[in-house]
Write a structure and sequence with these properties.
572 residues; alpha/beta; Ubiquitin-like (UB roll); Alpha-Beta Plaits; Rossmann fold; 3 domains; 5-stranded mixed beta sheet; 4-stranded parallel beta sheet; 19 helices; 17 strands; globular
Length: 572
């Protein structure tokens, strides 16, 4: 059912239940917002979206005010413009002015809005909140003095991820988002997923910038620099250069990394394929023995840290496989070092990841089975984009190039690791053929695809009926883990991804990352899979050679030494 109202004297029809903000958008009128986010509950606390509604004495927040039949709305009257201007000037009075030093410079919603409303200074007295920055983790940096109290991060932490360590404290001018007990993030059960960062409109939460470390390594003639690229990067990096979401930029990405000066450009998809071989055999072994089922995937570091904090008694259910990032690093400093003749001490491994938690994962003490740290430094998608811009690389002029071999050879199964359900689908493609010895007729397990919070499927593998579950977002993961804890889980195999949408929606991806953008990146991921000649991990010829020359067999002694790990129970 639709209703009819007027926006600035123009008639517009919207669905019943729409807000005035929805109606204005349909009428082609942009209303400024800060606390509003399309994937979150309405908060209506910033009030920057005020409009005038005929018959109402007070101005009304467009994001929360319901559209009604016959309503007359005015969006740019002198009263509205003055109210918005005053609200923004008050925010700027207590906001740091060091825009050039901020990672969100030119991409800050507050800064952009001030420009749109033609505000260059605030007439109100400066009020600086003395709140120290939090640099306690290798992943995230919190600068509370930049907080504008929009509470988007509070929603992301509590509602989306079900963790709840962020909340608003103090009153009046002192109001700011803080952590529980004002403790550093590093001392809390924060999983470092960066979903708070993704929704922050300003620079109050950012990733720790490691680009200087990479520039230094690239300039060091003694370093042999390798870079690996996660599957989710190729469907997102283009957004940092003005492309529409969902563009596949694999070839340009490889070309850009070579122009930066990396000695070898490899693909994390190679070790995604390797993960499927190891994890698939691990699943079959547990299924045969009937022990520690369901097996739960282990490639998402935010999810692993969440499990360590919240379900330490269930860690035996997690796959012992390292993530593809860490498998790559371990092989780079052993297998690749031996075959290429480089001293592993001189090999410097850089990962480009969609995930802020990967920075933490690379620093875990368990991740140096080659004697050296598996991965030396992790860059997010945004950090790589900044480096490319610093280097003056013109994105549009880049040629299409291919990854180096052998650690750049991959299959479509490795590509789909970037989307929720992708690890499960890749595993099923291999497990089916390993068990039955028959070629899988249809490769697309569509039941585990999509943005539904929890998905499940029943798969016939030979004479065995296997039930699988897939969850993305930690609030959904908690539901599945509570089932396991109660002994009520119906699943044999579970995939869990920390971030909504999977890695394509990670905390290190381009901003904004909304559910609509996630859908486009997911669609591009499966399109990239379909374009691959090889789409099953066990068909990867470089992985086959790796086993023949180095690892010998899945779950073998060397595989366990380099590719598997253990987990650490942590307090809440």
């Amino acid at each position: 059912m639709t209703i009819e109202l007027t926006i600035n004297e123009r008639i517009v029809c919207v669905a019943e239940g729409s807000t005035v903000l929805d109606a204005c958008a349909k009428a082609g009128v942009k209303i400024p917002t800060l606390c509003y986010h399309p994937d979150q509950q309405i908060k209506a606390n910033c009030r920057i979206c005020l409009v005038e509604v005929s018959g109402q004495r007070s101005l009304q927040p467009a994001c929360a005010y319901p559209a009604q039949s016959g309503m007359a709305v005015y969006t740019s009257t002198p009263r509205v413009r003055e109210a918005r201007k005053t609200i923004l000037e008050l925010m700027l009075a207590s906001h740091p002015r060091a825009c050039l030093e901020c990672p969100r410079n030119l991409k800050c919603e507050l800064q952009l809005l001030a420009n749109e409303l033609n505000i260059s200074e605030s007439p109100f007295p400066r009020y600086e909140r003395q709140v120290p920055a939090d640099l306690s983790t290798p992943s995230l940096k919190r600068v509370p003095e930049k907080c504008i109290n929009c509470r988007r991060c509070v929603h992301a932490c509590l509602v989306t991820q079900g963790i709840g360590i962020l909340y608003t404290s103090e009153r009046g001018q002192e109001t700011v988002v803080q952590t529980v007990g004002r403790e550093p993030l590093g001392d809390l059960s924060c999983v470092l997923c960066g979903q708070c960062l993704q929704v922050c409109p300003v620079g109050a939460i950012t990733e720790i910038d490691d680009t200087d470390k990479v520039w230094a390594a690239l300039a060091d003639p003694k370093k042999h620099t390798l870079v690996q690229v996660a599957p989710a990067i190729r469907v997102a990096l283009g957004e940092e250069f003005g492309q529409d979401p969902g563009g596949i930029v694999t070839g340009k990405l490889v070309s850009a990394l070579r122009m930066l000066g990396f000695d070898k450009v490899f693909d994390t998809d190679f070790t995604a394929d390797l993960t499927i071989i190891e994890e698939g055999h691990e699943f079959l072994e547990r299924l045969k023995e009937g022990e520690s089922l369901p097996l739960i995937t282990s490639c998402s570091p935010g999810w692993i840290k969440f499990a360590e904090h919240n379900f330490p008694n269930l860690l035996r259910h997690l796959s012992t496989c390292k993530s593809p990032q860490q498998m790559f690093g371990a092989l780079a400093k052993t297998y690749y070092a031996q075959s290429s003749g480089h001293n592993p001490r001189d090999i410097y491994v850089v990962s480009v990841m969609p995930c802020t938690a990967k920075k933490f994962e690379a620093r875990r003490p368990e991740m140096q089975d080659s004697v050296y740290p598996d991965v030396d430094v992790v860059l997010t998608t945004r950090e790589l984009a900044r480096m490319l811009k610093q280097a003056g690389i013109v994105w549009e002029a880049l040629a299409e190039e291919a990854f180096d071999t052998p650690l750049g050879i991959s299959t479509g199964a490795g590509v789909i690791f970037g989307a929720t359900g992708g690890v499960m689908e890749a595993a099923l493609r291999t497990v089916y053929e390993v068990v039955t010895g028959e070629e899988l007729g249809r490769l697309d397990f569509t039941a585990v695809r999509g943005m539904e919070g929890i998905k499940e499927a029943d798969i016939e593998v030979g004479k065995q009926a296997i039930r699988v579950g897939v969850a993305h977002g930690l609030q959904n993961a908690r539901l599945l883990m509570e089932q396991v804890e109660r002994g009520e889980s119906p699943y044999h195999f579970i995939e869990i991804m920390c971030c909504p949408g999977g890695c394509i929606g990670g905390g290190g991806q381009p901003i904004p990352t909304t559910n609509a953008i996630r859908q486009k990146r997911i669609a591009a991921t499966y399109l990239a899979d379909e374009s691959m000649v090889l789409r099953k991990s066990h068909q990867n010829p470089a992985v086959t050679t790796l086993y023949e020359e180095f690892l010998k067999r899945p779950l073998g002694l060397r595989s366990h030494e380099l590719l598997h790990t253990h987990y650490t129970p942590r307090t809440k």
